[in-house]
Specification:
Radius of gyration: 22 Å
Number of helices: 8
Oligomer: single chain
Helix content: 25-40%
Largest sheet: 3 strands, antiparallel
Order of helices and strands: EHEHEHHEHHEEHH
Shape: elongated
Distance between the termini: 16 Å
Length: 174
């Protein structure tokens, strides 16, 4: 997963000049590869921590200007094997913790796995909300009834819960 950050020099920003450097994470050494290159006028012993901030970013989740760059670099390293937030979502052990529905492919395997009888399937479909029988995804709502989901809805769900997906990923992997 691609994470780009624009790290800026806080002192120069306070003097009215926005300077900084775009960097793709992860890097080998945050101090050497990022902070030394934005002219902070100090070293790691004297506290890079107070002299820089993240003024912009490109990532599928929110990054604050106060996000710890060292922890963000560690997260980026852990996310290197994932291309999209969808890949991260499917890798989670506890998807329900993200606030997302536990979504499945809308196919015969879903019905064979989730229900013991045809009567259960009929009840769940009748009381559920199947928007279109050609929708690619299906899930069980809070009442145990089937609801279908389009690809667009699925991607929006992931986008809307990206921060929670990343938080759960951090809890499970870092």
């Amino acid at each position: 997963m691609k994470i780009n950050v624009f790290v800026s020099n806080l002192a120069k920003y306070n003097d009215g000049e926005l300077t900084g450097k775009w960097t793709t994470l992860p890097v080998d050494d945050v101090n050497k590869d990022i902070l030394d290159k934005i002219d902070l006028g100090g070293d790691s012993k004297h506290g890079y921590h107070d002299e820089w901030f993240i003024s912009d970013y490109e990532a599928p989740f929110k990054i604050s200007e106060y996000t710890d760059l060292y922890q963000l670099n560690e997260l980026a390293e852990a996310l290197e094997d994932y291309d999209t937030i969808e890949d991260v979502y499917y890798a989670l052990d506890d998807r329900e913790a993200t606030g997302c529905e536990d979504v499945y492919d809308f196919d015969d395997d879903f019905f064979d796995t989730m229900f013991l009888s045809k009567q259960e399937v009929a009840r769940a479909v009748f009381f559920g909300d199947i928007h279109n029988w050609l929708d690619p995804y299906i899930f069980l709502n809070g009442y145990g009834n089937c609801e279908s989901m389009t690809e667009y809805d699925f991607q929006n769900m992931l986008k809307d819960h990206a921060d929670e997906i990343i938080d759960e990923f951090k809890m499970e992997n870092i």
